[in-house]
Specification:
The complex is a heterodimer.
Chain A (H helix, E strand, L loop, with lengths): L1 H39 L7 H9 L1 H34 L5 H9 L6 H12 L14 H25 L4 H8 L4 H29 L3 H7 L6 H12 L2 H26 L21 H26 E2 L2 E2 L2 H6 L10 H31 L5 H13 L2 H4 L2 H11 L13 H23 L3 H9 L4 H29 L3 H4 L9 H8 L7 H29 L5
Helix pairs in contact in A: 1-11, 1-14, 1-15, 1-17, 1-18, 2-11, 3-6, 3-8, 3-12, 4-23, 5-9, 5-12, 6-8, 6-9, 6-18, 6-20, 7-8, 8-11, 8-18, 10-11, 12-23, 14-15, 14-18, 14-20, 14-22, 18-20, 19-20, 20-23, 22-23
Chain B lengths: L7 H16 L21 E6 L7 H11 L2 E6 L3 H10 L8 E6 L3 H6 L3 E2 L22 E13 H6 L20 E4 L5 H14 L3 H10 L3 E3 L2 H8 L11 E5 L7 E2 L2 E2 L1 E3 L5 E10 L5 H11 L2 H11 L2 E2 L8 H6 L11 H19 L2
Parallel strand pairs in B: 1-2, 1-3, 6-7, 6-8
Antiparallel strand pairs in B: 3-12, 4-12, 5-8, 5-11, 5-12, 5-13, 9-10
Helix pairs in contact in B: 7-12
The chains are: A mainly alpha, B alpha/beta.
Chain lengths: 548, 357
Amino acid sequence: MRSRAEGARLLTLLGLAALPLVVLGVFFVLPVSGMLARGLWPDGSLDLAGVVEVFGRPRVHRVLWFTLWSAGLGTLLSVLLGLPVAHLLYRRRFPGRGALRAALLVPFVLPTVVVGVAFRRLLATGGPLGGLGLDGSAAAIVAALVFFNVAVVVRAVGSTWESLDPRPAEAAAALGASPRQVLWTVTLPALRPAVVSAASVVFLFCATAFGVVLTLGGLRYSTVETEIYLLTTNLLDLQAAAALALLQLVVVVALLLVTQRLRRTADPAREHRVGHAPQLGRRDLPAVLVSLVPLALVVVPLAGLVVGSVRVEGEWSLAAYRALTRPTAVLPATVQDALVTSLRTAVDATWMSLLLGLLVAAVVTRRSRSRAERRTRALLDGLFMLPLGVSAVMVGFGFLITLDRPPLDLRDSPLLVPIAQALVALPLVVRTLAPALGGIDDRQRQAAASLGAPPWRVALTVDLPVVWRPLLAAAGFAFAVSLGEFGATSFLVREDHPTLPVVIYRLLGRPGDLNAEMALAASVVLAATTAVVMLAVERLRVRSLGAW
Amino acid sequence: MSHPRPRRTGLLLAVAALALASCSLTAESDGPSAPATSGEAAGGPVVLVTHESFALPKKLIRAFEAATGYTHEVRANGDAGTLTNKLVLTQGSPTGDVAFGVDNTFASRALDADVFDPADVALPPGAEAYALPEGGDRLLPIDSGSVCVNIDTTWFRSHHVTPPATLADLTEPAYRDLFVTPGAPTSSPGMAFLLTTIAAEGDSWPDYWSALMANGTRITSGWSDAYFVDFTQGGGDGTRPIVLSYDSSPAFTVKNGRSTTKALLDTCFQQVEYAGVLAGAANPAGARAFLDFLLSPEVQAALPESMYVFPVRDGVELPADWARFAKRPTSPYSLDPAEVDAHRDEWLTTWQDVTTR
């Protein structure tokens, strides 16, 4: 009797997971396996000796070590600097809060080649910050990693923090706990699942970052990802590339095992309600001071970008913006056309990743009744993190060699780009939704069901109110991920309808009257569009909420 | 206990849903991939696989489609190396009919992997000079250009320093901390410069690079940040007046009728880009028609302004700035493509050791 019920639960679980699993299988597992197979079975027979030889190379040890410590440090700093910002932006009210929230997400969408130029123009010998001597240093790389990723921590933790029940903290304070005690004993433990989730995603982003490492490190530093890129696109040494990709898989799995333990929800029965965020006050001064660091880190390069786009030969001018609207022989499309293409792709990628993300989050957060069930959920949870941790080059090349014949003749499909982007955004979406969904007391659902509510009604009245805010936060992420260029998609972009990042790369490819300024201007357009979309989402999310 | 929800929520949601529905999934519905088969003799799509620097004026593409009845489609990404490796990986199941952009440093890899079929297309006058020693029947030269050290002539004039002229000069103390070049592993021009030094210095090239590094040479990952960040004529606050770029670059720094930069013609490596019919192409006839098109006087004349390269065809008029300022080397360095392919791995490893020491 009991085992039958258990079997039924497992079946439901797999049924919900079926669509995401198929998508992941076809658009990630299959391409990556294809590339691994090419590398590990070079002539039809398994060549493990060659792989072992790759692991023995001193260069590989150096590269692995640099990858781990730079990503670790980047993650640590993103979390430490991101938490106070999350507190200010999601637990306090002040004018310009929405604009700041939106601005923080802007780095996410900027093509790395532009960020490289923007950062280096600040840091290079002749630049405004040239005196710091950071150009080409590991410190510059870590700073850029924080620049890109601090928004992940702020957004993911912030949206949980916002819907955290404030009453335990208030009670502790009323009982005489100091603000620091409240933070350490009440708030942070409640936030732990969200922090760990965000940190694991950030670590994977840092560990697979590649453009910034090359640009800012001046080729002195290599990560596993940059090595795979070099081995695949230049040397065509698929065996070594496969060996390094296996290494990435090991790192991801190890990370997932560690975070799975750390993420266990502290108190599943905790209540969610959105407290009224108080005005920014004097007691927030420490948080404000700490927040200035990450804010400066994000705002200064962005300001450099804007200034660079309106400085033409030492004078203020909008010539670059005007030039962008005219089609030329070099520009494959005007900036308007490219922007429309980018936005359309982003809309598709967003709804795809939200659909898949909701299904996955629902599957991984329901309370398990048996060990087998819990194991299955944990496995599924980890599986969907893989696209973040495995080289995008492998996926991109894998598409070409595995999706080339019926029934999966998909490599020329226009949907490939949004699907690839959706898979990259999926872990962010799941990680943003899961802490909220996981915090819902299952007894609420049971109560609703016993009162006669059908499953959709339960979802609508119990789950949706809690998930609504994180869902919008996740939509913002997915949209931003899609607008910026991410590895695998750059192997798929179709020339007939280039996206804005493609136009930017093209402009930075050769000398020309206004090429650099136009590239910066196009990046500003991309950044501004992102900010406007994010602001609109913010508005939607404030208006839509009553008090729950 | 809950506040009444404002009605605007519903409205906003409806608008959002509409916005979603109106543009999702339709992104490419107006694309050229829509079936265009009418009962014409020649027809259907001819698909070009190329790198991301490919560009031609729309007018010419339309003329090609009108003249041949084919519809033109492009699959472009990556650089010459990415393109070549993609072609090798998809050998036998190509993603298109014709490929453009494999250069003389990658040609032998593509030929060895049997990526191309014999093209059976006649070369125009002048192009023969750029043909490959081996496999010339499969890969046809389309354009050429040289990678050369460039200098900011205004900087040298205002600082009263004699400008450098040769590769050896770059290791002189007078030019300390003045040179910036993109690195060989991550940049095609960077690779070309490594090959220049190998062609010039022979087996002692690592010593030359040690001397370059000792003289304060800066290495960047890509050409863009060498030129636009570090170079004094790149529009930023660059501090280095010597940069690795192209022989055509001086045509793009013209101010008041004079170019502010100059290519050092004794430091050049010649790059030639080829095109060919892919083995297993669905439309080989269309591929051949496209090769003819690439070699036609009209396309050859459009190459400088679309792709910053020189035509291979004789008697093609260059744009005015090019004719005046883009001086070409008379005897650029070159290496046998087969030798490049055989040693690429080893050379890059040695280069990385020398430059990060």
